[in-house]
Design brief:
elongated, homodimer, Tetracycline Repressor, domain 2, DNA-binding, 74% helix
Chain lengths: 189, 189
DNA sequence: TCATATTGTACGAACATTCAATCAGGATAA
DNA sequence: TTATCCTGATTGAATGTTCGTACAATATGA
């Protein structure tokens, strides 16, 4: 039972590493097996197909990122502090997990993308969306569509994290703070 | 001579359409040929390889997008108006050319990405970068790194355009104006 | 002894690329 | 004008490789 978990996890981790480095096309199942230290055939014991493996990986990565951000989410604080905390955690997560960021970005612009899967995983972020919705209702932030708010949070953070990973920028804690200040100015009412 | 241009262009256009719809992996050279109405072999008369074709397509698309934005760029206007005009044009371009946006996004997170190519094409946008740099020096906008400013312009616009193309949002002219207002609040000093 | 886990090989499909053969049409010579 | 030649354009089948997946065989452990 523990073996199952370990080997399955090893396969997912190997896939994440290789896909983030070489893309979907550049990542053969045989290479995933080699990286994970298992035989080629065993992958099909745990996953139906390459599509299924990638679906699972996407759900897993999204789940983990949501859990990390929600871990320090404290609904009792003032809304403005909640939003800033969410942003900080998203930035922190993206900067610490470049492989995940690159993979998620690749997934969402690839043929592996399935709206059904996206609909599922977006539910992980329900509390965050609810937080912004509350702020909107209380007229603390501008009356902009959720997707615009999401772009200014998730997409900006992941774009910057990718640039950091590529060495195009050096995102210090202080700079991240200033970016969050700027984003707050953007959405505050 | 004219034939050469036409067939080459047809191949590039076919590649753009198919790659934006099916990704790099899902786009076989034979399919590009079929879509372009030419034989499979002729592609190698105009391009060295699939890599070379994709490089060329990326440069072409970037060039076109830069030209479109720079067309209505008027250096004599006040800096704030210049920046708003640039944003408007970028949004307009992204919303009108979803295939190009999706392709560019895919390219930059794919194994086809080459820093050397990116360095080349980024020069097309020199006047735009200079505009923001001037605004920064005159302390009209915040003292943030170029890459952060770029993220808040190009990346936000292209992310939103992708969501629009996917039907997740309806970006009316009025909404785009409000987003630009918000972005301006983010970067203004 | 039986179910599950694991291996490594093998198969068929898809793919990028090559190439010998053909075509088109302009230049040249008679 | 007509015939000949030549060069680049174009074709489509062939090639060699890679890949996803299936599977028969073996190991493991309860």
């Amino acid at each position: 039972m523990n073996q199952i978990k370990d080997k399955r996890t090893a396969i997912l981790e190997a896939a994440l590493k290789l896909i983030s480095e070489n893309g979907f096309h550049g990542t053969a199942m045989s290479k995933v097996a080699k990286e994970a230290g298992v035989s080629a055939g065993i992958i099909y014991h745990y996953f139906d197909s390459k599509d299924d493996l990638i679906d699972d990986l996407y759900r897993t990565v999204k789940r983990k990122s949501a859990d990390t951000v929600l871990e320090s989410y404290d609904q009792s604080r003032p809304l403005r502090a909640q939003i800033r905390q969410i942003w900080e955690d998203i930035f922190k997560y993206c900067l610490r997990h470049p492989q995940e960021v690159i993979f998620m970005e690749q997934y969402s612009t690839s043929p592996y993308y399935r709206a059904e899967v996206e609909a599922d995983v977006s539910q992980y972020f329900t509390p965050i969306i609810a937080c912004f919705e509350r702020a909107r209702q209380e007229m603390i932030i501008k009356d902009l569509p959720q997707s615009v708010i999401a772009t200014l949070t998730l997409n900006v953070a992941s774009s910057l994290a990718q640039k950091q990973a590529a060495g195009l920028i050096n995102l210090t804690d202080e700079l991240v703070e200033r970016i969050i200040d700027a984003l707050w100015e953007a959405i505050r009412e």
